[in-house]
C-alpha cells in the first residue's frame, strides 16, 4: 500500500512513518519545514520527502493519506484530499488500528518528560530481553531510531495530549488504550487548543477511562492536577511515586546523578548515571514502576538505567570549543526550563552558565507562559531571549523582570556575537528551543573556533 503522510517531519508523524515502512508499505511524505533529526532519520530509512504541500505530490493518488495535526483547512494538500475524496485518517487512529491492536501498550503521558521517560522505559525492557516496540517523539540514543515494531507484545508509546487532527479533536492518547499508564505530571500547556487546565484534566480522565481494571496507573503524589484526574473516577490499580508514595528515592548526589530506589520501604538498588535533575529522578521512578508491571525486577531495571543514554535534544552535549560546552535542549515550558537549568547548575557548580531561549511553541507564541519565564531562568548567569518576528507579546518586558542579566535579540548573528563576547573557557551554553533554531548550535560552535 502507498501511504502518503502530510506533516511527516513532526516527531510523531516521522516515527509513525518508520513503523509503516517496517510493516512493508511504500511510504512518502511532505512537510513545510524539513530539518533534522527527523529528516535525517527518514532519509536513512529510504522514505521520500517533499518540501511543501503542492497537490501534485498526491498525483497519482496514494492508497491512503495520513494527515498530521499541524495540518488545517486551507492547506492546499488537505483541500485536494477532500475535493478528490481520497481516503484519509489521523496518525493516532492509523497507529491504533495497524500497530497497537492486541498489544500490551505502555503509555507515558504528562506535560513534561514524556520523551525521556518513554526512552527510559523502552531501554529498560530492551535491556531485560523483552525486545519491545516503541514510538517516541525524539531519537533515544540507546536505539538511534525513534520507532520500531518490536518482536514481542510489548509496545512503549509517548502519549501526547495534543489533538489528533483537524477532523478529530480528541487527544492523541485516547486512541492508544494502554494497559500500563504513566501520568508524569500535569500543568497548563497547549494554549492554542485548550482554554484552561480543567480542559486538559478532562482529556487525561478520558485516557484513565480506557485503562483496564487489570492494568496499572502510575503517578507522582505531588501533582494536584493528576490527583483531581484520578478523583474523577479510576477503575484501575494505582501506584504512586515520590514523597509518601510506594516508590521513593534517597538522593546520594544533589544533581540527581546517583540515588537509591525504595519500593514499599525496601531498598532496591542504586542508580548511577549521566543524567541530572530531580525531574529525571522522578522519570526513573515511574519507569521502574511500569517495567515491574510487565515483569522486570527493579534490580534489573536499575542496572538498565545506569546504562541509559539520553534522548537527542534533551540536554544533549553538541559541541565543546575552546573549553566552552554547548548543549541542545528541547525545553519549551517554564517548568522544563527551570528543572533543566537546576540539574545542570548542580552538576557544574559555580561555572558560568548562559541560557539561550527561543519561545517557539504555540503556547509560548500566545504568551501563555510568559509570567513563569523570569523565575524559570534563575539558575543561569545570563539569558539571551530570541524574539522571532511573529511573537505577539512583549518579550523585552518579560526579560526586564528577570533577576539575572537578560537581553532580547532578534537575530542569530546578534546571539552569536553576544556569546562570543561573554563566553570564556569553562562556560556552559544551553540552547533551548522545540525547533531547529536556524542551525544556531552549529553556527555558534563554528563562530567560537
From TrEMBL:
<keyword id="KW-0460">Magnesium</keyword>
<dbReference type="Pfam" id="PF02875">
    <property type="entry name" value="Mur_ligase_C"/>
</dbReference>
<comment type="pathway">
    <text>Cell wall biogenesis; peptidoglycan recycling.</text>
</comment>
<feature type="domain" description="Mur ligase C-terminal">
    <location>
        <begin position="313"/>
        <end position="435"/>
    </location>
</feature>
<keyword id="KW-0131">Cell cycle</keyword>
<dbReference type="InterPro" id="IPR000713">
    <property type="entry name" value="Mur_ligase_N"/>
</dbReference>
<feature type="domain" description="Mur ligase N-terminal catalytic">
    <location>
        <begin position="2"/>
        <end position="99"/>
    </location>
</feature>
<keyword id="KW-0132">Cell division</keyword>
<keyword id="KW-0133">Cell shape</keyword>
<keyword id="KW-0961">Cell wall biogenesis/degradation</keyword>
<dbReference type="InterPro" id="IPR036615">
    <property type="entry name" value="Mur_ligase_C_dom_sf"/>
</dbReference>
<dbReference type="InterPro" id="IPR050061">
    <property type="entry name" value="MurCDEF_pg_biosynth"/>
</dbReference>
<dbReference type="Pfam" id="PF08245">
    <property type="entry name" value="Mur_ligase_M"/>
</dbReference>
<keyword id="KW-0067">ATP-binding</keyword>
<dbReference type="InterPro" id="IPR013221">
    <property type="entry name" value="Mur_ligase_cen"/>
</dbReference>
<protein>
    <recommendedName>
        <fullName>UDP-N-acetylmuramate--L-alanyl-gamma-D-glutamyl-meso-2,6-diaminoheptandioate ligase</fullName>
        <ecNumber>6.3.2.45</ecNumber>
    </recommendedName>
</protein>
<keyword id="KW-0573">Peptidoglycan synthesis</keyword>
<dbReference type="GO" id="GO:0016874">
    <property type="term" value="F:ligase activity"/>
</dbReference>
<keyword id="KW-0436">Ligase</keyword>
<dbReference type="Pfam" id="PF01225">
    <property type="entry name" value="Mur_ligase"/>
</dbReference>
<dbReference type="InterPro" id="IPR005757">
    <property type="entry name" value="Mpl"/>
</dbReference>
<feature type="binding site">
    <location>
        <begin position="110"/>
        <end position="116"/>
    </location>
    <ligand>
        <name>ATP</name>
    </ligand>
</feature>
<comment type="similarity">
    <text>Belongs to the MurCDEF family. Mpl subfamily.</text>
</comment>
<keyword id="KW-0547">Nucleotide-binding</keyword>
<dbReference type="InterPro" id="IPR036565">
    <property type="entry name" value="Mur-like_cat_sf"/>
</dbReference>
<feature type="domain" description="Mur ligase central">
    <location>
        <begin position="108"/>
        <end position="291"/>
    </location>
</feature>
<dbReference type="InterPro" id="IPR004101">
    <property type="entry name" value="Mur_ligase_C"/>
</dbReference>
<comment type="function">
    <text>Reutilizes the intact tripeptide L-alanyl-gamma-D-glutamyl-meso-diaminopimelate by linking it to UDP-N-acetylmuramate.</text>
</comment>
